[in-house]
Fold these 2 entries.
Entry 1:
Amino acid sequence: MPESSRVRVRPGVELQPVGGVASRIVLSEQAVLPAQRINEGWVVELPTTRFIVPAIAAVPVGTDGKALPSLEQLKETAPRPPAPPPPVRQDDAVYTVRVLSNTWFKLSANHQAKELPADKKTLVRSGTVLALKDHEPAARGHVILTMATLYQGRAKWAAYGPHVAIEGNLPDNQPNNEDPPTQAVLHRPNPGKRGRKINLSFGFRCPRLNAWVNYFYLGEPVLAGGNFSWAEVTKNGQRIPTDAKVIGNAIRIAKAMEEVRKRLGSRTVTVTSWYRDPATNRRVGGASRSRHLVGDAVDFVVAGIAPKRVNTLLDGWWGSRGGLASASSFTHIDARGHRARWSYGF
């Protein structure tokens, strides 16, 4: 019987022998004895025999002889666990963020974690999933996460984009299936069919010409030798960008679209939506902060491959470079700079 279990038995209690092989005895004075817990009390050990002591007649004691606290007392003095966070209302949680690898949530996207004091960062383990109200790109490849409920006492955190995945779709993001531009995809650009010239009020660096220009032709490819035209970027000139940043974004996603086409066997890729001005975006049911508004998003169809299959084939390759989603009639890709995935539900 382990010495660590000891009880103090009060005097005058009748002890019943285990197995009935000895006579009952009554202690004349208090005694501290080795003991073992059983359902009806304790089994105590005397020099020659073991006896049963009723639970009400014995008190557990420590090695110093002092009474140990009861289970009820322990429950009363034990530190209480932190209160669970309030439940997330359905209208608060639009997205979830899933942490892909151990990372720091920080109060600043402009600093590395090692540059920040402990009260301005918190380590978040891989596999953690949290509810979000919103998210937006930030400096240095980061994303600002607006939490549905406070996380570590904060409403907003900055996370490094490649370390997290955003999942979920805004309720107002239900774009209609748009008709493709009449300009065919330029598999073999023909300088003799340049199309209409679009003059701009600003300049941009044209990668095809490797020069600064303030115009483009609808029938010309965005990239030298490329397969996507400015007609597809602008819906045949119906949606003209108003600043150089949109043009730069369109050029950037055009490079990705060339990769998409190559990865999918150089099949015909038909663009259904690229740049959208605000009025058009509202008309077609786009999200209020759609990436189409800044020019780095494309909705497209691949000949002979269903949109959901296209999504599956591109998912791992596109990774944390941006958003990827599919509907029954098109696939969406954008270059927001962090992983985002969702379904349109149709």
Entry 2:
Amino acid sequence: MSARQPSNESAILNTDEPHPPEPGEPSPASAAPLFRSFWMGGYEGADHVNSRGEEVLMNRRSGHWERLEEDYALLARFGIGTIRESVGWRACAMAEPGAGMARVARTAALARKFGLQVIWTLHHYGVPEGVDMFSRDFPAQLAEFCDEAARTLKDSGDGPLSFQPVIVEDGPPDELIALGGVFAGLWKLQAEGQETP
């Protein structure tokens, strides 16, 4: 920290100047970047039922789930080291028991094989059959799914897990507020080192 000496010779702390790093503390120039690459790859993971009642599973429709290894190899050729993937709450719930999270674990393993940093989207529009986003049970249902996803992915990468906010792109304001409250509570528990429900 630096101090200025005013004319009355009493020291005043100058908070305008940055303080030098403490011994062992990384300087801003040597701190690791947040992302492994400037450009990111992203795979459309919407898994909802549209307004016409049609099932939308974009990762299946695009063939990405079947071509993970090919898709990841292409990214490596372009030097892309960061990607966004969708866990897909509805997609996981629709699969045979355990198959949805097994798919997520396979995706994580292949991403690690190719040195990719994954930012996971937990909820990309779709909710499982019978889940009402405005019911009293919704926060507990969502928390249970988030916990299952976090447990599946906890040892999947070579760095910290990254999750994107649950609602992506858009959503009704009351939906965003409701989900914001759910996640604020979960993040607070995690920050305190407590087990989340």
